[in-house]
Structure prediction request, 1288 residues.
Amino acid sequence: MRENTARSLVLPVAPTRGRLRPLGLDEVRITGGFWARRRHINATATLAHCRDWMEREGWTGNFRAAAEGRIHRDRRGREFADSEVYKLLEAMAWQGAAYDGEVAALTDMITPAQHPDGYLNTAFGRPGQQARYSDLEWGHELYCHGHLVQAGVAQSRARGEGELAKIARRAADHVCTAFGPGGNPGVCGHPEIETALVELARLTGEQRYLDQAALFIDRRGHGALADAEFGRAYYQDDLPVRRAEVLRGHAVRALYLTAGAVDVAVETGDDALLAAAVRQWEATVARRTYLTGGMGSHHRDESFGDDFVLPPDRAYSETCAGIASVMLAWRLLLATGEPRFADLAERTLFNVVATSPSEDGRSFFYANTLHRRHRGIAPPADRVSPRADSGLRAPWFAVSCCPTNVARTLAQLPAYLATVDDDGVQLHQYADAELTTSLADGQGVALRVRTDYPSGGTVAVRIGRSPARPWTLSLRIPAWTAGVTVRLVDPDGQRRTVAPGTAQLTRLFRPGDEIRLELPVTPRWIHADPRIDATRGTVAVQRGPLVYCAESADLPDGRDVDAIRVDPSAVPEDGPDGTVRAPGELVAPADTAWPYRPVDEHSPAATDPAAVTLVPYHSWANRGPSTMRVWLPTTPPPTTPTRR
Amino acid sequence: MRENTARSLVLPVAPTRGRLRPLGLDEVRITGGFWARRRHINATATLAHCRDWMEREGWTGNFRAAAEGRIHRDRRGREFADSEVYKLLEAMAWQGAAYDGEVAALTDMITPAQHPDGYLNTAFGRPGQQARYSDLEWGHELYCHGHLVQAGVAQSRARGEGELAKIARRAADHVCTAFGPGGNPGVCGHPEIETALVELARLTGEQRYLDQAALFIDRRGHGALADAEFGRAYYQDDLPVRRAEVLRGHAVRALYLTAGAVDVAVETGDDALLAAAVRQWEATVARRTYLTGGMGSHHRDESFGDDFVLPPDRAYSETCAGIASVMLAWRLLLATGEPRFADLAERTLFNVVATSPSEDGRSFFYANTLHRRHRGIAPPADRVSPRADSGLRAPWFAVSCCPTNVARTLAQLPAYLATVDDDGVQLHQYADAELTTSLADGQGVALRVRTDYPSGGTVAVRIGRSPARPWTLSLRIPAWTAGVTVRLVDPDGQRRTVAPGTAQLTRLFRPGDEIRLELPVTPRWIHADPRIDATRGTVAVQRGPLVYCAESADLPDGRDVDAIRVDPSAVPEDGPDGTVRAPGELVAPADTAWPYRPVDEHSPAATDPAAVTLVPYHSWANRGPSTMRVWLPTTPPPTTPTRR
Prediction:
């Protein structure tokens, strides 16, 4: 690893060391296409939607009630409701000047609720409430402080230090005093404070914040928390972070914790801790991740399942876990430079993060199932919905962590597209974008990326400004291209075939030079490891980075997706408007009184040949209630098993 | 339906009307074999085990604390802990005279805790506690009263009315006063009081108990309870009982409620309500039941999943749900006489109820998974275990409903073997047994059944005493014999082939006559309806009524059950000691960084041919920590899919 000398301050994550140096929101702009549309809706609809719902549900009002001394009887929402206000503030800060007024107004509401010693939480610590830190397992007080700190860091970096940043810093100082050496020896049931404190240390240069984050990481796994019904693995207190082999327990908790561990490892030069995080990520991606990049296969405790327990119909795949996975992957990419981390981030962004918000940015999936058997009913427009009912997107949830998390992620998304290092520029994610930065020697570089990725696979990179010396343009060749031919065309028109990983072009670039990457985004059948019991005998379709699904809206005569059988010996083809046509048939199994029978008995099933229309998974449930499946059963083998 | 004139009073369920008349514990004795062994262990080990754990955990002590006025600070266990004491008392009452002393001692402890108006609960209603019935959703007060009433009924019928029966009747009177017309309009979050009140009405002839039960059934489904995070279906308050099409929500709640609905329907002649229960049972058995008869596929809320959502690895299949399913099936069998209800009861008894207790009767499964991926660790011998960790049986649980439920079920099991009607005797379950009863005209019949079922399939019925007129012996021909040849041999040695359903032999029987039923219990491959996604591409083995499983204890070199691939084109065969040998192979899939790949790529897997030893599912995990699976993946099709 090397030292980073950041050129920009507008960075969600700003490690002082690492293989790659991130670019700020002032250095990369997304100018069109898939993500520009979603960022536009986020800025113009989602932020106001979140603010309105929090006002309506009383979550912002909690701060007023606290200041007015009536919180013990008037508090609304769950114990972590404060954090939603902070996440919205963070999103607004990254979004820029247009939200300065909103940020100031919300901050004015929060300020009087802070205790003189910096503690800030509307659910604990006042007369008539539970005592501070009396329920570290479930109280989420440090979690809320963490989101406050992240909002403060965002304000400092994106808009310049204001009142919010000051509140946040006072809260962080309080946490260090309360939980520092000799203080409360506990940790929070929900990790989050760790990444926040490291980022504040990066912003301020204050060692104590980093030390406190490292202390929280090291305390965990030694019985810091009380036993829980779900077991101590639920909040990762079963094993010390550096000894664990795989992520387990509550998925968001596990991923935030590991992101925090990477932050601490990078800042303290703790290579063993970084290696532990990489090892856990590898095992998790190899054995506990859905095709979409989604993580978490248990509804009961919103947790990872055992290895290869990935039932499509019970996929929890929480939106926030997808976001946390992108956060972790980004930190590992910066630390190591390895494209596999960007591969998972791409998959998760397109198939989890982009799936959550509706087209109008005013409703969301909390969980992202890969198989929906029943048409949902429209959720209420005027009250909160249960979080994991994944039939249709809902405007707000009783536990509503996902909408504000999507909002802050989309607001900071341009920062995840590219990096620089001593040798040049690395493009990790492909979008219509403009990039203006400088290399390690201070010489300026400007690029313009044009693509309709992921609809199309051609990515054109035009050099705007370039040093008068050779440098290296690195392009991630996605892992999903394994087995197909990817071509890179250099400014001279020379084409070469490149393999998954990183393609590098080192030369003296001139303004106007264009580099073209040709990624073949044709639909392909995908099958799963046979150890995933729940997808045996099925295939899925992926086209470029996009996972596809069948939706009942595209079937004739009110038929259901469970009737679909596809034929993987034939080829899926592009259909109109970004759809895919999969060869197969529709079956109608006969109803029986008992669903098990000897192998030599057969239940008749009527079949109709059909080419089944598939749509991108991220777009499902935008046409009203529908059934849906990603993994499609294959046509059964033609012959009857015969006894011998 | 006709009126029943019971000859025996020692009946767990004593409908006044119905197609069949049940026999009492004084009319049927189990004399040997599978169930005799389990009943012996139940009587000699399990009952004392339950009593000792409840004393140790303070659940019996709660009654002392209540009487001594210190319950508000000393209460132990969950809100429904009282009910475990009542279920144990019920088991002891059915078990007979040997437990009279224990019953009296426990009753002496309970008596002073009853309020003058009959209310009895150690968790509510005293100074410093929550008010009575202030939490009908979760408080379980009517549930506890229900189990108290069932214990009282058991005492009255099996041992003659004593103090326990008097307490129970006072409690029932209180319930009718408190929840009768003009009283509290609520219902209990956990159904149970309904069956109890009907049984008390049957015992006492008091109409008010029946009316109250009918009122509880009718109130449900009209928003009687508050909204719950799991949805109102969780406690069956989403739809009126008579309008529902299938069982849903918490499995034990759903099954107890439906059993209560059948009881009310039978006693009030409400054919529409009975038809609704039958319809829901049919849909549940056709689409929401595991091969074992187990019910409930969600851990999150211990509930039924959607239709065909039956993941083996997340099977909750709670022991108590199995017991409740037997209770419901028995009531439907008595009402209708249809053998399909006895078929499900048999399957559930052998594969769920018999699976729960260990061989020594001192540890239990709470949940009964059909697939265990990790070897469990031995649960603590000296403290309670989490309820759904299904790796190994545990001595006691924080929520410990199952051990006492198993105990009371085994204690009353002989009552489920046979019935009589105007025409003769019906044998529903096969066990070494002696039966002495009388037909409708009062003439005596005695039978002796000899069999080593389910190990062997020959059932010999010897007539001991018989009226000097023709009558009909009916034998259930299990549904699992579909497709194989079953023979019935009459006393003259005449053999005939009989089909699944009921075989009847009407003749003038003489003492010494022997009827022989030959059920071919050879192992057979079973496959599941293709709509059960989680078992696609797998088969199971059933031998007679027993479901089999592979256990890692039987694999070489520490191999794991997930390595097993079986070949359903070859025939499974009997192995030694009740095992089955299944033809197949062991595979070792290569580890990969990402578990999804295009269909035309192949992951190499080393394979070794092997005949895999299978054991009866009920016996698994009796040899220490093991992995286990019921559904075995089949060998993949021989050819690679090719594009065309």
Summary: Chain B is about 30% helix and 20% strand.
